[in-house]
Amino acid sequence: MSGKRKGNTVSKxxxxxxxxxxxxxxxxxxxxxxxxxxLYYLRVLIDRPxxxxxxxxxxEMTRPLSKALDDVDPIEESYMLEVGSPGLGRELKRAEHFxxxxxxxxxxxxxxxxxxxxxxxxxxxxYNSEIGAITVSDxxxxxxxxxxxxxxxxxxxxxxxxx
Length: 163
What we know:
By secondary structure, this protein is α+β, with helices and mostly antiparallel strands.
């Protein structure tokens, strides 16, 4: 499947999901459409302004979203719909994610080792959308991290076990 088609699928689902989420007092955190083995998965991650999503929220979102997807039928392939929470160690991807979690601890994994470091934990100090970078501070100082060089940036939960 081409990246362009995949992007169109996600944007179509986002258009359907966003008003449903808003009506339920929820926010769309992220939507992905991925092929794993022979199966396709449409994953819709929801959040609340207070950051706490429970199973009831997921069920309340799944029913109307499933109906809207059946009615509009924007996806040709058979797929599994999964609605869930981004979790405590949520991945930060969009501008609003970075802006919402300024001054919070994050875990950053580079795509390729940089200055002898593959992964580190620091505090998200700044987000710069113009250059696609964040500023993170740790015990060694302040670092500018280009987002294009990262495998991920996630909120850091002290209780989390490194992947």
